[in-house]
Amino acid sequence: MATKKSSEKKSVQSADLPINKTYKLFINGAFPRTESGRYFQLDDADGNFMANICLSSRKDFRNSVVAARSAQQSWQDRAAFNKSQIVYRIAEMLDQKRDLFVNEMIQMGYSKSASDKEFTAAVDLVVYYAGWCDKYMQVFSNVNPVASSHFNFSVPEPTGIVATMASEKTALTGIIQAIIPPICGGNTVVVLSAEKYPATAISFAEVLATSDVPAGVVNILTGKRAELYSHFASHMDVNAVVIWDAEKADAKNVGALAADSVKRTHFYESKTPVVGNPDLIMNLQETKTTWHPIQNISGSKSGY
Amino acid sequence: MAKKNDTNTWSLSPAPESTSHIRIDKKYDLFIDGKFTPPQSKKYFKTINPATEEVLAEIADANEKDVDRAVKAARKAYTNVWSKMEPKERAKYIFRIARLLQERAREFAVIESMDGGKPIRESRDFDVPTAAAHFFYHAGWADKLEYAFPAKKPKSIGVVGQIIPWNFPLLMASWKIAPALAAGNTVVLKPAETTSLTALKLAELIRDSGIPDGVVNIITGAGETGKALVEHPDIDKIAFTGSTAVGKMIQRSLAGTNKKLTLELGGKAANIIFEDAALDQAVEGIINGIFFNQGHVCCAGSRVFVQESVVDAVTRRLEHRMNSLIIGDPLDKNTDIGAINSKGQLETVNKYLELGQKEGFEMFQAGNEPPKKGFWCKPTLFKNVAQSSIISKEEIFGPVLVMQTFRTIDEVIDKANNTPYGLSAGVWTDKGSKIFNLTSRLKAGVVWANTFNKFDPTSPFGGYKESGFGREGGIQGLSAYLKFD
């Protein structure tokens, strides 16, 4: 199945026809086709047909947001330790599928050594973020020494629903970088895969589907950025928009539309190789500060 | 014997704060590059006392050229002086400002009450001391930033444009300027056009501190001036506090630029009273939540949710307490509710009062008859308000409280969160586990449990959702004025 072109040629002679995978979307834990019925053709590096890929529509995006919203609170409420284990489980499931991903990447134009490297970096990245799930809150929380007789503390809380577009530069680390940091922080995600690398994105969805990630926490679309920018930016139930490697004009349009509901917007330039960075978690967190009176602490007056 | 009309049980003699020791000039120019200079627009506008409608002073109206002058001065000061100064020296200037403000605290409090209409009790005990505390707290950060952000190599951003509202003029100016300076930036600040005076007095004090020219520039004017500041190409960051509508315009206008942005916008906070709360304290909390500063507070507890079993007891106590509120001369030390900040804002509030009655909700108003002159609104309560009504959805920004009831915890969480805003919330109950259930479920940046409307320089303040993004105060607030590797 992996090196399809050569194996197909062989298979005609050997009557050993491979079962080609249908690449579909990943919404609410299921693999539906796009409701629009549209597709675009993905060719392999040699220009031969590789697969028909779903060309996602506005409606697919909106369905994904509904799924992400209904999954969000319960995902946020899961214990940090539990989230950490689930993300680590993603790494476990991913690591099992090295051949699948490496072969897909080779088909989509990676060299053997580059795809090996990309795959190893991808697994490492997931493991890195798995470890952050139960630590970022400790590292980035504060007890604040207010001058009045109150106990006051600030903790990070997930922003909510993150609509994101993965970098076009890498086949696997790009989409992992778009998905994993937000979900480590208790957000749910709707992600548009790289237009160039939809196959690995959907194969990654298969990894997520077997990693105890609850339905709706991650929703993956394939399609064209240009068609979906305005929908990502203008949906009123999206809390943050994260675009990797956006063109300047697109960033401007997305930023302007996002203002209608004061969305948090982040336009990141991806670096290669992709390395872990807790800012990607923290930039999708709100700070919540809680106050409660303390019964008379002597001497704690705010006078001057 | 209790009399029927609670307001008649006793009366207090007038106790006005003296205005003899304050100085207000007839005319104020723009504070640019360490000097007060006339505006190139050659235009001035009047600022009035909203309690008397008397003119206090004339204020310069900065145009685009004036904004450009201010930004250039700030850039020059950033490049040549402030960014090169040793952080510990930066700190000393900011400490100095804190001390100067404390020394002149009473003068600032009186002017704040005259220009903005807030009771002297609040400007004296809250606005001015908290403003000074912001300078004092942030000063010490200047040479300790690497400890606040380990492994991130914090650096100043450059020239910061700051636009502030009219509800806490001096406090907002201070909590914007102090962290910006501590982080090593220079500042162009624009106060709101109805309340420029204390910002300009602060400019005098900043000049007296000996801080290098151009590090802080204060320019006055209305929306057009703010727009010119936002759109100036040499600004590196905008920090805005004000309405959600204007915040959205600014976010839109900065889209696609490299300018950083933080927004502190509107709110419609839920203040939730459970049946097991200490009801007398909770009623004080409701009063403080909505009538503090005439309700001109973005985080005001403007929606009160009362558990059904105690709604009668709470309503009775609340109305009784509202009847004891004294409305009138902001400079009187016994005044609880001062003047509405401007004629325009009074019209807005009155529009909502009409709307609430038109929507069919029972309105209760309390307090003594306000003075004839000036802008006044009696403390107002709308009872049995529907979740879908306009007065429970839109920010009124006045002394107007809407009351809803609830039965279960899940119900009140749903109702409280069912708003595009998310700035603050309050919870009143004696049960600790219930408090933490609520405080973790309410989508709001600040949650007050068994208290309300508390502020501190060490405590991050800011909202979720359409209440804005970024925090002010604390370590989180500091990070908004820094860039990282």
Please supply descriptive tags for the structure shown above:
heterodimer, A: 304 residues, alpha/beta, Aldehyde Dehydrogenase, Chain A, domain 1, 10 strands, disordered N terminus, B: alpha/beta, Aldehyde Dehydrogenase, Chain A, domain 2, 2 domains, 7-stranded mixed beta sheet, 6-stranded mixed beta sheet, 16 helices, globular
Report on the structure:
- Chain A: Pfam families: Aldedh.
- Chain A: Keywords: Oxidoreductase.
- Chain A has one domain: Aldehyde Dehydrogenase, Chain A, domain 1 (3-Layer(aba) Sandwich), CATH 3.40.605.
- Chain A has 11 helices and 10 strands.
- In chain A, the strands form 3 sheets. In chain A, strands 7-6-5-8-9 form a 5-stranded parallel β-sheet, with helices on both faces.
- In chain A, α4 packs across α5 and α9 packs parallel to α10.
- Chain A is globular.
- The termini of chain A are far apart.
- The relative contact order of chain A is 0.16.
- Chain B has 485 residues and is of the alpha/beta class.
- Chain B has 2 domains: 259 residues, 3-Layer(aba) Sandwich (Aldehyde Dehydrogenase, Chain A, domain 1); 180 residues, Aldehyde Dehydrogenase, Chain A, domain 2.
- Chain B is 39% helix and 17% strand.
- Chain B is globular.
- The N and C termini of chain B lie far apart (71 Å).
- In chain B, 59% of the residues are buried.
- β10 of chain A pairs parallel with β18 of chain B.
Number of separate structural domains of chain B: 2
What is the CATH homology-level superfamily of chain A? Aldehyde Dehydrogenase, Chain A, domain 1
Low-pLDDT segments of chain A: 1-8
Q: N-to-C terminal Cα separation of chain B, in Å?
A: 71 Å
Q: How would a crystallographer describe the biggest sheet of chain B? A: 7 strands, mixed
Counting DSSP E segments of at least 2 residues, the number of strands of chain B comes to: 20
